[in-house]
Amino acid sequence: MSRPTLSVVIPTHNGRSLLAPCLESLRRHRPEGLDLEVIVVDDASSDGTAEWVAAHHPEARLIRLEPNGGFCAAANAGIAAARGEFVQLLNNDAEVCDGWAEAGLSPFADPRVGSVAPLVLVRSDPSRVDSAGDSYAFFGWPSKRGHGQPAWRWERRRAEEVFGASASSAFYRAEALRRTGGFDPSYGSYYEDVDLAFRLRWAGYSCVFAPDCRVRHDVSATYDHGSPALHRRMARNAEALFWSNLPLPWLAAAAVPHLAFLGVQLAWKASHRRARPFLEGKRDAIAELPRFLRGRRDRAELARSAAARPAFRLGVAPMRAAVDHVRRPVGAGA
């Protein structure tokens, strides 16, 4: 059996109603001549998702997980099963647009590119941007580039290097995922893509924003934005990103600005009655700080591995986009 060019991995949990437009968009916009496989990872759904996929989309490979392991575990299971040279991770509440595959795969002609960020539009209002790639401010502020901005501002952009790609629709080089280990399950389902973007950069890979690759996303249809548990997890994960991933010189320089930023965040959270889950998340992070710091050894090993491959830029150079594209998000973040 020949190896497909692209594997589209769709993790889902009780998302049968969301899957129909997602899978139909893949069927409708599938490029002629592209060897593509679609993998649906059913993460212990109780709404008949697996049966529905088998009956209505037999072209999709179906993986059933028991018990529910969360987004990262489901994504990793799909990635492990994928046979493609490249992998696209696609949310069950997202739809691809015409020409998405060709535009998303084109930047991989450069062997240094490990991931590609599509232009993700808001499905209910495609004139607005959900994400044009991810940004990360050195003092600990992950955010979506272009979030809430008019789409025309980004549709006219040229392809450019960015920090990372949103996992709602990111393309990855399969080899790069194998080198970096995929998603860290400890993140659950928030900022896991930012952590992976850091590790890809430590391994010497870059990320490219491809404005001609368009995806429409029903923004966080699978999340309850008012959930205290979600805000607690976001607060914990933001610290995991900061202490595990920043190069040591940046970490030393950013420690004081980071603490100041936490004060600003706390004031904002308190004004929105979200201070308690925020503080609980930071307390969780303090308890895990030794583990976060031990994780820095893994990043150092990725950098040493990259040093053996002269095609890749080393040192701080692969990380430079981490502060190049900081944008103001809609809210104060986690």
UniProtKB/TrEMBL annotation:
Alphabetical keyword list: Glycosyltransferase, Transferase
CDD domains the UniProt entry points to: GT_2_like_c
Pfam families named in the record: Glycos_transf_2
GO molecular function, one term: glycosyltransferase activity
Domain of life of the native organism: Bacteria
Domain Glycosyltransferase 2-like: 7-177
Family to which this protein belongs: Belongs to the glycosyltransferase 2 family.
Protein name: Glycosyltransferase
